[in-house]
Amino acid sequence: MRIPCPYCGARSSHEFAYLGDAAPTRPDPSAPDAAEAFHSYVYERDNPAGPMDELWYHSAGCRRWLKVTRDTRTHAITAVAFAGTGEGGR
Amino acid sequence: MSDLLEHIAPTRLVPEGHYGPEGATGVSARAANTSASPLAAATLVARKGATGRLIVACAAAGLPLADAPRSSGGAGLEAVGTGPGRWLVLAEGMSGPDLVARLAGMAQGLAAITDQSDAHLILDICGERARAALEKGVTVDLEPTVFRAGDAATTVVSHVGVTFWQRDGATYRFAVGRSFAPAFLRWLTVSAAEFGFALAGTGRG
Question: Is pLDDT at B1 greater than 70 in this prediction?
Answer without folding.
Answer: no
